[in-house]
Design brief:
By secondary structure, this protein is an alpha/beta fold. Helix content is 33%, strand content 33%. Strand 12 and strand 13 form a beta hairpin. The N and C termini lie far apart (35 Å). Bound molecules: 1-O-pyrophosphono-5-O-phosphono-alpha-D-ribofuranose, uracil and magnesium ion.
Amino acid sequence: MGFQVVDHPLIKHKLGLLRRVDTSISHFRQLTQEITILLTYEATRDLILEPRSVMTWQGKAQAERISGKKISVVPILRAGLGMLDGVLALIPSARVNVVGLYRNEETLYPVEYYKKFNNDIQIRDALIIDPMLATGHSMAKVCEMLAEEGCSNIKALCMVAAPEGVQYMDEHFPGVTIYAAALDDHLNEDGYIIPGLGDAGDRIFGTK
Ligand SMILES: O=P(O)(O)OC[C@H]1O[C@H](OP(=O)(O)OP(=O)(O)O)[C@H](O)[C@@H]1O
Ligand SMILES: O=c1cc[nH]c(=O)[nH]1
Ligand SMILES: [Mg+2]
């Protein structure tokens, strides 16, 4: 598996603000979106280009355009929605395939409550978005759902990952590359990432 902490001063600075307990809802949303744009930039580095001739003000010139498979973004409800605008800012024509999961607080395994996939999901590369990779159970569940649909090329973006989640994904979906803003220290006894962000869904939606 590929796991990459995207190393950039802007990401580090914005993540520091995101971690602050006194960051407002609106600022939390804005920072999440901005960091997602930076992660998307890195995660799309291997997109394939093809040459293309364009008519410029000085006649024809050689340019390039993205070719090959198209992308579908897969936000994991709820918190993943906070990252959607960031991806769409760079890939405005991406299709969106939504999965609704919540984590059972006792078992720390996800419960599925919603799924809406496009008809052409299997011919697109999938980009899963969820701010938190804690145990990795939610991310793995979505990879399983995508694999069942025939998706063969899957990447994921998250704000903060725990070593436990990275290891779980490595064991179960070694072909999936994850791009994160940070690799944190550990999970606490309730399955929360330390230091983490707290409950990202609550911070984005203003619940609690
Ligand atoms: O790696 P895991 O241990 O599976 O935990 C991570 C999941 O937990 C959070 O969702 P939550 O269940 O809080 O739902 P929410 O987005 O609706 O708040 C988070 O957004 C991930 O989806
Ligand atoms: O730290 C965590 C773990 C799971 N979900 C969150 O929102 N935060
Ligand atoms: Mg939550």
